[in-house]
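Pilot study result, target chain (450 residues):
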Amino acid sequence: MTGRTKYLLDESDLPTTWYNVIPDLPESPPPPLHPGTREPVGPDDLAPLFPQAIIAQEVTQDRFVDIPGEVLDVYRLWRPSPLYRARRLEKALGTPARIYYKYEGVSPVGSHKPNTAVPQAFYNAAEGIRRLTTETGAGQWGSALAFASATFGLECEVWQVRASYDQKPYRKIMMETFGATVHPSPSKETAAGRAVLESDPDSTGSLGIAISEAVEQAAADPDTRYALGSVLNHVLLHQTVIGEEALLQFAQAGDTPDVIVGCTGGGSNFGGLAFPFLREKLAGRIDPVIRAVEPAACPSLTRGRYAYDFGDTAGLTPLLKMHTLGHDFIPDPIHAGGLRYHGMSPLLSHIYELGLIEALAVGQQECFAAGVRFARAEGIIPAPEPTHALAACIQEALRCKETGEEKVILTALCGHAHLDLPAYAAFLSGRMTDNELPESALADSLAGLP
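Predicted structure:
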C-alpha cells in the first residue's frame, strides 16, 4: 500500500477567522421568536443567558469573524487537526472510492467540542462572569466546557442526561477532574427537573430536559451564564475551523470531495465541516453532495416537522424554526448520547429546506458495525456519534464498488470512543438493539408543538 496517509498543517496555518455561512445563502433563516409576543427576540432577551460578544456573533451578518488571540493560543494545543486518507478502509471494502476523514479526536477531551467551548468560556470570563451552566448528553460537550472553564478560571455546572450519566461514568470523572460539578438529569436541583421526576421517577432524561435545568439555573443568578454545545448559530460558527482546515488539506492532497458526510444531533460537527465547503459550492468552485446522517431513533431532519418549537422541554428558551420531533420528545436511550436531541440547528434546518444538503437516518446496529469495521482497518475506535457518518460513508463506498466510480468521500470523525467502550461491549456481545421511532409516538410528540 503506497501513498500519503496524513495531511498535516503547521500551527501557522491555523485559521484566524470563523466563517459565517448566512450572508452567502440565497435566503436568510427565520429569526428566533419570543414565546410570549411571537416577535423576533432582541439582544435584551438573550442577555440573561449569554455574554454580549456571543449575542453579537449569534446575529452577525459578517462573513468572517476574527478569532481572538487568547482563543488561538488554546486552539494550538491540538489544532490544526489531521486529515487522514483511509487507505486501509478502502482496501478492506474493495472500493475504488477515495475516503478521507478529518479527525477531531486529538483535542484534550477527545472530540470537536472544545472548538466552541474555548471561545464561549473566554468571552464569558472577559465580561466578568463567574460560573457557567450547561447540559450534556454523552459527556463530550460537558467535558469540553469543563476543560475550557478551567482554562479561563470559571466554575462549571453540568446537567448530564441520566441515560448517558449511567452509561458513561468516565465522562463524569473527566468533568470532575477539570473541576466541574455534574448532576444527572432530570435532577432535584431545579424546578424543571423535579417536575419531570414527579411524573416519571425513572425518567432516562433528554437533552431538552437537561437544557431546561441548566437555563433555569443560569437565569436565576446574575453571575452565571449558560453555554450551549450545539444548535445555535454562534456554535456552528466556531466549529468552521474544521472545514477551513480541511479545505487547505485537500489542496495539499490535490483532491476535491464529491460527497461530504457528517453525523447530526444538534448540528455543530456537521456544520463545522460542511459550511466552508458549502461556501465553495455556492460560489460554483466545487459541487459536492453534502449529506447529514442522524439516528433512526431520533430522526429530526428526516421525520420531524419544520416548525417553531422550544429548544428545551420546559419551554424556557425562545422559539426556534427548526426540524423538530416536539420538545416533549424523549428519545430511546441509544448509545450515541450526543445525537439524542429533539430538534436540529435552525440554520441547518433552513439549509436543508433550501435543498442544499441531504439527510439520512441509520439504525444503531448498522452504525456500530461500521465503527468496528473502521476500527479494525484504521486503528481508531470512533465515538458512537460519528459511527453514523461512517455507516453512510461505507454505504457510499460500496455503491462505488458496484458502479466502478472513483468518488472522493470526506467525513468528520468528530471523536474517539475511549470513554464509550461499554457501548461497543453491548454491540459485540449481541445485546444491542435498534430503536425505530414508532409513528404513533412521533404523532403524539408533534401534537405538543406550541
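One observation from the pilot: The first helix runs from residue 43 to 46. A full batch analysis is planned for the follow-on phase.
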